[in-house]
Structures are given as C-alpha cells and as structure tokens.
Design goal:
Layout (H helix, E strand, L loop, with lengths): L1 H4 L9 H8 L4 E3 L2 E3 L6 E6 L4 E7 L3 H16 L8 H17 L1 H11 L4 H19 L9 E2 L7 E9 L2 E5 L5 H15 L2 E5 L6 H13 L6 E3 L4 H10 L5 E5 L2 H10 L6 E5 L5 E4 L5 H13 L11 E5 L3 H14 L18 H16 L3 E3 L15 E4 L6 H4 L6 E7 L4 H8 L7 E5 L3 H10 L4 E4 L18 E2 L8 H4 E9 L2
Parallel strand pairs: 7-8, 7-10, 8-9, 10-11, 12-13, 12-17, 13-16, 15-16, 17-18
Antiparallel strand pairs: 1-2, 3-4, 5-6, 6-20, 11-19, 14-15
Helix pairs in contact: 2-5, 3-9, 4-6, 4-7, 4-8, 5-6, 5-8, 6-7, 11-12, 15-16
Bound molecules: 1,4-dihydronicotinamide adenine dinucleotide and magnesium ion (MG).
The site of magnesium ion has 3 residues, from loops.
Pfam family, one: Aldedh
Protein name: Aldehyde dehydrogenase
Keywords: NAD, Oxidoreductase
Length: 502
Amino acid sequence: MSTVLSSSRYASLGASSARFIGSAHRMLIDGRWVEAHSGKTFDVFDPGTGQVVARVPEGGAEDIGLAVRAARRAFETGPWPRMKPAERTRLLMKLADLIEAHGDELAEIEAVDNGKPLAVARRGIAGTAEMVRYMAGWATKLNGETVDVSVPGEWHAYTSREAVGVVGQIIPWNFPLSMAIWKLAPALTVGCTVVLKPAEQTPLNALRLGHIIEEAGFPPGVVNIVTGFGATAGAALAAHEDVDKIAFTGSTATGKRIVEASLGNLKKVSLELGGKSPVFVFPDADLERATPAAANAIFFNAGQVCSAGSRLYVHRKVFDRVVEGVIGHGDQLAVGHGLDPASQIGPLISRQQQERVERYVALGEEEGARRFGAPRVFDSDGYFVAPSVFVDTAPDMAIRREEIFGPVVCAMPFDDDDLEGIAAEANRTEFGLFAGIWTRNLSLAHKLARRIKAGSVSVNAHMVNEPALPFGGYKQSGWGRERGREVLDLYTSVKSVAVSLD
Ligand code: NAI
Ligand code: MG
C-alpha cells in the first residue's frame, strides 16, 4: 500500500492525508478504534488508477451488534440526549469548524477514495460544514405546542418532540463526506445516537470524520462507524431489533431490501433513492446559462448524482442549438484523476459501475438511439467513462427509463407549450426526485413546477445545494425529506401529554 502512495501520482498529497490514507484503519465503536471481530479487512481502491490504496476492517453482524449496544447505552444512560440543547449546538458548531480546518485533508482523501476532482471535493466540504451549522441551530428550536382540548374539565395539554433513539445510517459512495454529514448532523442535533455504515467503495472519509468527531469532544458511543459490505454489515444494521430508525441513501432495489429488513421491529425508515430527473429548456430561456447548466446537470460528478438531469427536454425551436452545446460541453470536459488539477470530472466509482454504464451506452445504440460524444482513450486503468448524449430515443428504451448513474443523457424535443402533455411526459417514470425548468416565463415555470411529481424543482438553476431546502423523493425515489426543518421529523417522535387540572 505504502509503495502505491509513494508513487508520483500521489506526490501532491499533503502530509496528513497521505499519512491517514496509508495508516492501519480501524472502526469506531463505543469511543474505541477497533478491528473487525473476524479480523478480516477489505481493499479500498483509487478509482482513478484502479489500484489498492488502503485496507479497512470488514465489519459484520457481530461488529454491528457491538456498535448498536454502544449507541443504546449512550442513548439510555449517556450524557448526549440529556445535554442542554445549547451544548449540543456548541459541539456541532465545533465539529463544523474542525471540518473546515481539516478541509484540505478531507478533500484530498475524497479525491483519492471517490475519484472526484480536488476542487469539486473542496467545495463540497465547505458545503458540508454549512450543513452542520444549519442543523446545529435546530437543537434549541425543537419546541412542542400547547393544545387547547375540548373534552370536559380543565386541562393543560402539550406536545413535545423527543429523539427517536438509536439510529442506523447507511450511505452511498457518490458524495462520501456530505452523505455522512447529511445523515449525522440532524440525528445528532435532536439527541439521537448513531451507527453509521459508509459504502464499501468509500470508507475512508467516514473514518477520518470519526477522528474529527472525537477531536470535537462528542461523548463515546454517540457516533459509531462500522465499515463493511451491504449484504453483511448493512443488512445486519437494517434488521437489528434494537435499532429504532434506519436512514438510507442508495439504489431503489436496496431501499426495498431495507424496508423488508425493518419489518422485524417495525423500525422507522427513511429512504433517499434513485432518480431519472427531467430538465426542461423552453425557447425563451437564457440559453447561454441553460445550455452549460443542462450539461453540468448530467456530467457533474460523472453523472453519479441521484438528482442528475438525465432526461433533457428541449423545445424543438432550440433543440439543435442546445443539444449541440451540451455535446460540445461534454467533449471539452477534462476527464481525469481526482488529484490532477486539470480534471473537471473524475472516474466512476468502481469497475462494476463503469461496466454498468458502458452496458447502457451499448444498449442504447443497439436499440437504435443515436449517440453523440467524442470517443476517448484514457491513459490509466482508472474507471473512466466519456460523456454521451443520446437523441432519437423512444419512451420504452432502458436508457430513457432506468437510472444509469453515469455521464449519459437522453435529449428529447418537445413541440408546443401544452403544459399537461409536458408534465405527463416528465411524470412518465417510477422516480420523482427532481426537475429543472429553464424559462423566462414565470407563470409557465410555476404552473409546470406544480404539475411535476418530484420532491424538488429548480427554476433557472440546477439543484440548489441549500441546507434549509427539504430534499427527497415522490414515488420510488424515497420516503421522507432530508435537509430543512422537515428532516427533524425523521429523527424525532411527538409525544402528547394531557394533565387534568380538576
Ligand atoms: P446500493 O444501494 O446497493 O449501496 C448503497 C449503500 O447500501 C452502501 O453502503 C451499501 O453497502 C449498502 N447496502 C447494499 N446492500 C444492502 C443491504 N442488503 N442491506 C443494507 N445495506 C445495503 O448501491 P450500489 O450497488 O453501490 O449502486 C448501484 C446503483 O444504485 C447505482 O448504479 C445507482 O443507480 C444507485 N445509487 C444511487 C445513489 C443515490 O444517491 N440515490 C447512490 C448510490 C447508488
Ligand atoms: Mg448494491
């Protein structure tokens, strides 16, 4: 491992990130750094080279059991849920400052572990710290209400919001650090304790975050981090009888397995799943902005974004201009290793995802769609895929219906401004996560936003990354909303108390 890290590829790494990546990794359970009960480890790959850069413990059901027990003890008898809300705010604020202070290091780890370009990772980490700060403020604002009751007699009745308890959180690999924080910050602010399982493809920044959480001074057992595979560690967490709530982000197929696994103790479940999100460009839109934004909507993070704009609907009057612009934008994007300062998009996360995306591209061509996008030769064994734009697709083609999770977009013309027809086309999907609308006609934009079955809509922008805005899916894109005030509902239970004053 250390020989790989000492190659020139990693020469730009700072001392702290190089030391961390090359270190002997352990999992965080009950405030201690431990190996897996089985003693097993698994390899962590740099997707930009295909080489093994680290090994982490392969946690399984025993380790999940120990982590849940620690989280239970921290919840029932530890200081965390009993702390004054303002103290939880202060600790979370400190965590945000530390994330920022370690920003360069976290970004470098993300560039190696996930493959995304360093500059992109760096921006993501700044946003992550802001998410922690936003959520930290809610600790002191979890008020209930007094309720005026109508039953006979004199009463004092009120509601209160209580932390739901021990939370299992299972996250994906596309934004490793932000996904960990999206999950942890709201759970912690309300006083829950957590067992976090990062994706097996990207365990490093969750572990680094564990050290930062320790440094901030969180009590032991409040955050436990178990690295391992989905079918073992993940499944054990989802099925565990002493977990009160499970929060998951990932594929719709795995989301359904989480729901099944939750049946044993009917734990609360929230799911952030896939998407096949439409982007509409009307002929009156500011095309100078809309065209590169439509390209970024699908090519950003190599298309590995749940809210990626993978169905691009462009009015026929401007179809050629916009679609040629998107193709040109894709062709010009520098695809390369995360640590290469020239890179604008990185590799896909794994050989498996690379092959999956390539299969979809081949299938699209076999089914008769026309593909645009310059072929590329990549000078490394990284999991790179060139951007593709498909035209002449049909509604029943797999590339039109299924989440590809790569830099592949289907572009479709629309003819008139028949809103019902346009909305019906946008809604012809099992998903409902996001939609983008580009027009200067605000009446049209609001009318269309109202008709689209999706949890988030952006007008003249793509996906606003704002902690105060709730985010989540209609239909098979998920259950519940993350971010905003709404996320607090996922991690709290409401209690009503009625006191007879007679
Ligand atoms: P996945 O949904 O299987 O994995 C996500 C997380 O779930 C990982 O931490 C994994 O270890 C865990 N997991 C897997 N099986 C589990 C189980 N039976 N019980 C509990 N946890 C389990 O996603 P995968 O296989 O990595 O990617 C496949 C496809 O999923 C992608 O091509 C993409 O379409 C979609 N995906 C969507 C994401 C999103 O943000 N909505 C993120 C990642 C993947
Ligand atoms: Mg899977």
